[in-house]
Amino acid sequence: MGQAQGGGGTEKEVALQNIQELYRKFASECPSGNLHLHEFKKIFGVSMESTEEESAYMENVFRSFDTNKDGKIDFMEYVAAVHLVLRGKLEDKLKWSFKVYDSDGNGCLDRREVRHIVKIIYKLKKHNNPCVKENIEDICDRIFELVDKNKDGQISLEEFIEGSEKDPWVMEQLKLDIGPCGWFLQKQEKNS
């Protein structure tokens, strides 16, 4: 399960002109030179009407992109986020997802963390599709059954990646599908 070997495959790198255009757009939308949490939440559609859980979840996502932990996303962090969302390898996206889900930062997901994230993901899915029905406990139990290989009641990063890559159902349950791609693509298309 190593990284794909580099060398120009089908994955495109962000071209210099794309970075210049991203900077121009970033500077016009974030004149302070930084993207703040309230602006970030707006991008992802989290408003005052959103639940406390959705808001807390987006704060976790924001913190995962704020790599220098200064409470704002600067341009370099923004480019890294855009690259991950639009062109990142599956394994990198899974590592990022794991980091977002690991709310206590101990390197493992326990049942509380998995239950919490499944509940939020389903609330977001239900918001976008009111027909979605779920039983959070059953989903959490099945995820642990499929992914927790050593049955220690925790999911390590390795178990998380392996389980997500091997089982489409697990991938669907844990997918960070909250709509940022559309926003990033829309910003790029406006510039083309």
Summary?
By secondary structure, the chain is mainly α. It has helices spanning 16-29, 37-43, 52-65, 75-87, 90-101, 111-128, 136-147, 157-166, 168-174, 180-191, and strands at 108-109, 155-156.
Question: How would you describe what is shown here?
Answer:
- It is globular, with a radius of gyration of 17 Å.
- With 192 residues, it is mainly alpha-helical.
- It has a two-stranded antiparallel ribbon.
- 62% of the residues lie in helices and 2% in strands.
- It has one domain: Recoverin, domain 1, CATH 1.10.238.10.
- It starts with 15 loop residues before the first helix and ends with a helix.
- Helix 3 (52-65) crosses helix 5 (90-101), helix 5 (90-101) packs across helix 8 (157-166) and helix 8 packs across helix 9.
Our Rg estimate from Cα atoms comes to 17 Å
Q: From the structure provided, what is the oligomeric state, counting identical versus distinct chains?
A: single chain
CATH class: Mainly Alpha
Q: Strand percentage, roughly?
A: under 5%
Specify the structural class. Answer: mainly alpha
Number of structural domains: 1
Uncertain residue segments: 1-12, 178-185
* Gap between N and C termini: 37 Å
Strand order of the largest sheet: 1-2
- Main sheet specs: 2 strands, antiparallel
Mean pLDDT across every amino acid position: 78
- The number of helices is 10
Order of helices and strands: HHHHHEHHEHHH
**What is the CATH architecture annotation?**
Orthogonal Bundle
- Please state the overall shape, judged from the principal axes of the Cα atoms: globular
Number of β-strand runs: 2
- Looking at CATH, the homologous superfamily is EF-hand
CATH fold title:
Recoverin, domain 1
Helicity range of the residues?
55-70%
